[in-house]
Records
---
Amino acid sequence: MFFLTIKRELLLAARRPFDHLNPIIFFVIVISLFPLGVSPSPEVLVQIAPGIFWTTALLATILSLDHLFKSDYEDGSLEQMLIGGKPVITIVMAKMTSHWLLTGLPLLLISPLLGLMLYLPASGIIALMISLLIGTPTLSLFGAIGSGLVVGLKRSGLLISILILPLYMPVLILATAMVRTGINEAAYAGHIYWLCALLALALALAPVATLASIRVSVSQ
C-alpha cells in the first residue's frame, strides 16, 4: 500500500507538473534575485547565504503544501480512504514521502548550483546539502499536519503558514547555524544530531497527528 500510494502520487504529479514545479521555480528565482537586489559582493553573499537558502526552502515547502490532500478531498477519495478499512496511516506516510520526493529532493539536488551562485565554499555546500537532506523531510512531515487541518477550507495557504511556522522555527534555526558553521569550516556534528532528533520526533508524531487532523476536517 505504501509503495502503491507513492506510485499513484508520482503519476498524478506527472500529469500536473506545474503544480509541483511552482515551489522549485520559486526557490530558484528568489535565490537568484538576491545577488541583484542585495549585493554582488562575495563577502556579503556568503554571510547571508545560509539564511537565504533555508528561509526560501521553508517558504517553497509551504507553497507546495496546499496540494498535499486537497485533490483527494475534492474528488472524495480522501473520505473513501478513511472509511475503506485500509491502513490509512500508511497512506498518509506515503503521501508525506511523495511530497518530499516532489519538493524536498529537487531543492536538495539544485542547491549546489545555487550555492556556487552565492559563492559558498565547498565546505558550506556540503553542510547545506546535509542540512537539506535531514531538514526538508521534517518540513514535509510537520507541514502535513497543517495541510490536513485546513484541507476542507478554501484559500487556506495563509492559514497553513500560521499553523506550521512555529513547528518550522527549530529546523530553520539549527539548519542555518549548521550551514554557517560549515562555511567557517568548523565541526557541525552537534547540529546534525539535533536535526536528526527533530526528524525522529516528526516521524513518530506527524503521521498520527496528520491522520487525526484529516479526520477532524473531513467530519466537519
---
Amino acid sequence: MIVQSATVPVHECNADALILALGSDWENSPTITEIDSRMSGQLSQWIRDGELSTKALKTSTILSPSGLAAKSLIVVGLGKVDASKTTDDDSQIGIAFRAAATGAKVASQAKTRKIIALAGFLENFGSEPSTLQAAISQSAVAGSVTGGYGQDLFKSEPAMSPPETILWYDIAEESIQRGKIVGESMSLVKRLVNLPPNYLYPESFADEALAAGSEAGFEVEVWDEAKLIAEECNSLLAVSKGSTRPPRLCIFRYPGADADDTSEVAPIALIGKGVTFDSGGYSIKPTDGMLTMKCDMAGAATVLGIMRAAALLKIRQPIIGLVGLVENMVAGNAMKLGDILTARSGKTIEVHNTDAEGRLVLADVLNVALDYSPSHLIDFATLTGACCVALGNDVVGVMSNNAELQSRLLNTASTVGEYAWPLPMFPYFAEQIAGKVADIKNVGEGRWGGAITAAKFLEQFVDDKPWVHLDIAGPAFLDSAKSWCDAGGSATMVRTILKLLEP
C-alpha cells in the first residue's frame, strides 16, 4: 500500500473516493469552504438541511460530486471536538483514528476504489504545531490504513478491498509514514487473528514472526519442542500434549534505537498468550463457544504487531517480546483434570480445568521473560470470559501488582481513545487458587471473580517485578462490525502500548 501526501488541490484530486471530515465547527473549516465553493454551495446546503451529519462517525456518500474531480465524496462526522479534552470518548487522538478508519472502511466496501484521499481532518483539532498534533496526525493515518482491512480473507469476492493508494491532505510526510507503520502493524495483528486454525498454528505463527523480524529488523529466536523440554517448560508443554501440532516459544529482541546509548537500559518485556486453537481440552467447549477460538492467540499477535511497529519506528526503548504457542486439543495423551504440573519456575500446579489453559502457557513464558531482567512486564491474553462478564466486550481488563505502572497504562489508553479499566487485586483472591495437593490450582473457587483469580495465578510467576496483565478477551475479537473496524480481529491495545513505549 502506498500512503503519501497529496500533491494537487483537493478539488482536482482524481481519487476514487475523497473522504472529508465534518466537525461541528464546519463553517470555519477551510477545506469545507473550498469544496463547498467548488460545489456551488450544495455541500453547505446539505449540511444545514441535515442530509449530511456532523454526528460522530456518521457517514454519507455522494456519487459524482459536482465540481470535484473525485468519483465520490464520503463525508464522515467527527462530532464535537473539544480541544480541552484529550482522554476517554473525547480523546482527540481516538476520534481522529476512528473517523479516518470509518471513512476508509466505507471506501473499501467498493471494489473499484483503488485510490482514496482524506482531507479536512487535522484542521478540526486546532492549528498550532505540537506533540499532540503529531499524535493526532499519526493516529488518523493509522486508521486510514487499517480501517479497510476485513476478515473475509478467503472469499472469492471479498466484501472489503483495501485501497492500493491513500493520499493525505495537510499532514506532514513524517507523520504519514509513521502512521502507516502503525496501521500496517495493526493489520498484521488483524490478519493473524482472523486466520483459521488450519492455516495458523504454532509452527506457522513462528514462520510469520521470523518474516516480520526480518522485515522490521528485530531478532527472532524460536524454541522448538525439544528446547522447551530441555528448559523444563512443563506447564506450557502439558497444554500442547493433545495436539499433533508441536508447540513453540518465540523470543523477540529489539535493542532500541541507538543501541549503544540504550545498552544499560533494562528492556520492557511484552508477553503474549498464543493458543492458536482452543477446544477446551477435556473441559471441552460447546460448539458456539469453540467456533471463534482461532482468536485465542490474539495476545501473541498483539506482541508481534507491537514489536514490528517499534522496530520500524525506531523507538529508543529496548524491548523483549515472548509468545507461547500451542493448540489445546483432546486426545488420549491430553492433559487431564487432576494432573499435577511442575512449571519452569519450580512451582507445582493442580489442573482443575483444562479450559483454563492460557494461564498455564503464560506461567512458563513469564518465567522465561525474567531471564532477561526486564524493568517491568506487560502480558496480553484472551484469558477469561469472566472479564467480559465484568466489563463487557469492548473494554480491556487491567490487573497489576504495581499501582504506578497500572496508572500509566490506563492514562495512556485513555489518551489514545482505547477502553481499559482496572480490576482489584486484593490479596485474599490469591487464597482462592491455593492448592490442596500442589502449590496452586489453575482456577479459583466457583464462578465469581474469575478474571481476577486468573491474574492472581499469573502473579505467582513474575517474582514481584512490576507487572500488568491485560485481559483482552472482549475487544480483541469483534463478534459484529464497528463503523471503524470489521468483525474479527481488532488489534486492540497496539496503539496504547506504542504510546507507552514512546510517550
